[in-house]
């Protein structure tokens, strides 16, 4: 069903990124979940409830697109938000979900259901983006403890409005993806900074 060496490599990479993301303050405590595609049927994913700054390979398991565990462990509570992406787009190789203060606060106060950004050079950090003159759209979804329902809503949005590069969940965090973990991390880092710019602008406009 999957190659053990691929799994071992993916598990170690997820642990390494967990340390980075925790050290940046984007994955406090047991928040966040991360995954890497193994093949066309399954991915390596963080187990539920683990401290993301202290992950070991034993905290990573394999799930299929229905969210069923193929190795021992308890899959992330948000598994279906990862598998929805892998199932819809075979070019997606990694997904990162984080809870940074900037993303959580901005997503909570942003009034519209889309956050549109333009004019920032850093937009070009997203794959395929070539100019600051384009507008990037990031949808905001209401938080929901029913993850199957939220995953269905995300899928419905993407199938009608386009997949985009990332989305926000209000008061919760962000999901972003890429062809591999390195690209996914680049997208996350760009998104974090772009959201930070937007939050700063909102504060300045209140002065
Ligand atoms: C403690 S944060 C609440 C759960 C959450 O939002 C999250 O990202 C982590 O959930 P998991 O089941 O993947 O540990
Ligand atoms: Zn979360």
Automatic annotation (TrEMBL):
GO biological process, one term: L-methionine salvage from methylthioadenosine
Gene: mtnB
Span of the signal peptide: none
Pathway: Amino-acid biosynthesis; L-methionine biosynthesis via salvage pathway; L-methionine from S-methyl-5-thio-alpha-D-ribose 1-phosphate: step 2/6
Entry protein name: Methylthioribulose-1-phosphate dehydratase
Catalytic activity: 5-(methylsulfanyl)-D-ribulose 1-phosphate = 5-methylsulfanyl-2,3-dioxopentyl phosphate + H2O
Keyword rRNA processing: no
E.C. number: 4.2.1.109
Keywords: Amino-acid biosynthesis, Lyase, Metal-binding, Methionine biosynthesis, Zinc
NCBIfam families: PRK09220.1, salvage_mtnB
Residue span, Class II aldolase/adducin N-terminal domain: 12-199
UniProt enzyme class: lyase
Gene Ontology MF: a single term: aldehyde-lyase activity
